[in-house]
Amino acid sequence: MQSTLASLFVLLSATSTTLAAPAKDGVDPVRYLGEPKCRIAPLEPAPLNDIVSWSGDCEGGFAVGKGELLWHDEKWKSQTLTATLVRGEVQGEGELKTEAYTYIGTLRRGVPHGSGFFTYKGGSMYEGDVVDGVREGKGIMVQLDRSEYTGEWKGNRPDGMGEMKFWDGGSYKGQWQAGKRQGQGEIVYAGSGRRFAGRFENDRIAGTAPLEEETTLDKVLRADRTTAASNYLPLDQPWEKLTEPQKNVVRKKYDALERGDDPPYPAKGPRETIESVVELNSRAGAAEGDLSVDVLVGADGKAKQVNVFKKPILEQNPENLDKLVQSIANVLLLENYKPAMCQGQPCEMPYRLTFSFDVTEQRSRGLSIRASGAGPVSPTRPESPPSPPNAPQPRPRD
What's the predicted TM-score (pTM) here? Predict the structure, then answer.
């Protein structure tokens, strides 16, 4: 098979041609792609070995009309562009599909340029100005968790004047720099709806210190002492018994939490919930990837709803995925929570959890947890009896 592919690749390479238009007044000539009878203007990223296919018509020595361009870059990543060509060049809007996103809008040399609409692989969307494939100018971006930014962009990040509606229910309107709140602005806090208008530096109110976070892992172990789940918080402790650095692990996830306020948290700590999720995952056939959810917790500490905005995959039993997700949502709905506290009073606020399922080549099934702002953590390999050969096992996250 490999020799057949290699032969085919050599054949394609041998039949590809790069042509240069005559130079005018000392200007570098255009290096066209394709055959002399069906030339195509340069594309970016440059096609590997100048090989590009065209499904449309050819006329006067150029690719013309509506059709599909397909090529691979030097990293063998595919690019598929559906567009109308005039004398080999894209005219007007086109649809570009890459491994990272799908784009509909204007292009230059096969790259998004002008204005258009992106749908990214991770689920987020952007509509607005773009320069050479980079979000630049004015636009709107909606993230998978429903947070939304409207305003000015530079280098793919909010920069200039803009408004962000955060996932936690708060918002910020004002100046941004390199993706952070920087300059004059007004924040509406999550839960209370209180407002502060003033100067921001490095994504927080000017003059306030960054939050110190906990860096020690706690673990949920199986009977054989292998790690089933881990987290930067003591999993069986209620909020009141956490240290300030441990509480800050949770607080830091909230973009619009006022200093002095606290988010909701499982009343007895998250251990029982995590153990239930480990068991449900094991029964379902071992998922892989992230399950991200927001639990809306009322002022009475009761869960009002669960919003699932990212699901893992179940390669062996895909038909069980929806059942697994619903079962986990039910566990979260039945959990008792400490309500959020806004200015010393209970208030309504979401609680975020990300369950990161990880499976490899051993029989054990692993689950690493990032709960409401904890950084990435990894399940460890078995410390006592090894698993049977050729069975799944937790793999450390990158």
Answer: 0.81
